[in-house]
Every structure is written in structure tokens, then in C-alpha cells.
UniProtKB/TrEMBL annotation:
Top-level taxon of origin: Bacteria
Swiss-Prot/TrEMBL keywords: Membrane, Transmembrane, Transmembrane helix
Parts of the chain that traverse the membrane: 7-27, 33-55, 117-138, 150-171
Native species: Streptomyces sioyaensis
Name the UniProt record assigns to this protein: Uncharacterized protein
């Protein structure tokens, strides 16, 4: 039941997102569309309540409950970011809004962008691990090994994403356009001296 609800919540997230944006930009009902978008967190609340009820009714804490906690954490950390990204693209495409700003591709700006994404992953892990710990306390003396393993998964995710984000800082990708321009300027004076 919990897995089915996670799938329903994911589908519901995209349905509410599409409905809210359609109301905002296609139907011109900006406030109604915003109200529909604000209903997104209710999906996670329903998932949290159903998961707690499932545990209270004697279900063995297993991978489904851990997955529910991670899903809620992911939505808390990345939900608004995703909605804003999609909203910017829909506004540009259907409402004459400005072209969305692409994330930086080179240098320290890209490293900063990746660092901010990593902080979202940290938030996801904190929320998920907190929910998992609450479930562990709630279950008490029962088998909580699966929930603890999900806590380890969130920690590994933070470490792995952190290493990836750190590579952008340690080995920043250089802008090929800038290098070509700098190389062209440097070549100019040499050509003059050879003549």
C-alpha cells in the first residue's frame, strides 16, 4: 500500500504541477493556478500520515517505509526548485516571459551552483533521516534494520554528491570561448612583431 501511495504521490505531483501551470498561463487564472501549486505539500502530508498509520497498525518497518521517508525528504529539498524551474520554462514558452537563466557551465560559478544543489541534498538527507529516526522510535523494540539502512543510504548520497560537487571546485571547467578570445588577443601582438 505504501509503495502504491508513493507512486500516486509522484504522479499527483506532476498532475498538480501541470494543472497549476495550465491555470496560470493557459487559462489566465494566476491565483487559482498558484493555489493549485500550493496543494503540492499536501501529497507528502498524506504519505506521511498513511505511513505512520501503517506502522501503528502493526506493519513491519521495511524498505517501503524507508522509501516513503526519502521521497518526502527529496520533495521537501527539491520540490520548490523543480516547480520554479518548470514554471520559468512554461512562462517563457506560453506567456511571453523571459528566457529562463541556464545554470552556469564554467568556473567558480558552476562550482557554486553545484554546491547549492549539494546543500539541497543535505536537506533531503536531514529530513529523511529525521523521519526515519522518528519511525525507529515509534516502532520501539521491533525490527528497524531496514529503516537504519535507509539512513545509511541518505548519508552515502550526501557524501557521493558532495564529492561530485567538490570536483567542480577543485577542477573547474574552463570556458572554451574565453580561452579562444584570450588566445586570440595574445596571438595578435606576436603576429605584429613577426612582420
Amino acid at each position: 500500500m505504501v509503495v502504491t501511495l508513493i507512486i500516486v504521490c509522484e504522479v499527483g505531483f506532476w498532475v498538480l504541477l501541470a494543472a497549476g501551470l495550465a491555470l496560470r498561463y493557459l487559462a489566465g487564472l494566476r491565483r487559482t493556478g498558484a493555489a493549485v501549486l500550493l496543494m503540492e505539500p499536501l501529497l507528502e502530508l498524506v504519505l506521511l500520515v498513511v505511513t505512520a498509520i501503517d506502522l501503528k497498525n502493526g506493519a513491519t518497518a521495511d524498505w517501503k517505509h524507508g522509501l516513503a521517508a526519502v521521497y518526502i525528504g527529496y520533495t521537501v529539498a527539491y520540490g520548490h526548485y523543480t516547480i520554479s524551474w518548470v514554471d520559468g520554462h512554461v512562462a517563457h514558452r506560453f506567456a511571453g516571459g523571459p528566457r529562463p537563466v541556464k545554470p552556469p557551465r564554467y568556473g567558480l560559478a558552476r562550482a557554486r551552483h553545484e554546491g547549492l544543489l549539494w546543500l539541497r541534498t543535505v536537506l533531503m538527507a536531514v529530513v529523511a533521516s529525521t523521519l526515519l529516526q522518528c519511525a525507529i522510535w515509534y516502532v520501539g523494540d521491533g525490527d528497524t534494520g531496514s529503516l537504519r539502512s535507509w539512513q545509511a543510504v541518505t548519508l552515502r548520497t550526501v557524501v557521493l554528491h558532495g564529492v561530485i560537487a567538490l570536483t567542480y571546485l577543485l577542477w573547474p571547467k574552463k570556458d572554451p570561448g574565453r580561452d579562444a578570445a584570450a588566445g586570440g588577443e595574445a596571438a595578435g601582438p606576436r603576429e605584429k612583431t613577426l612582420r
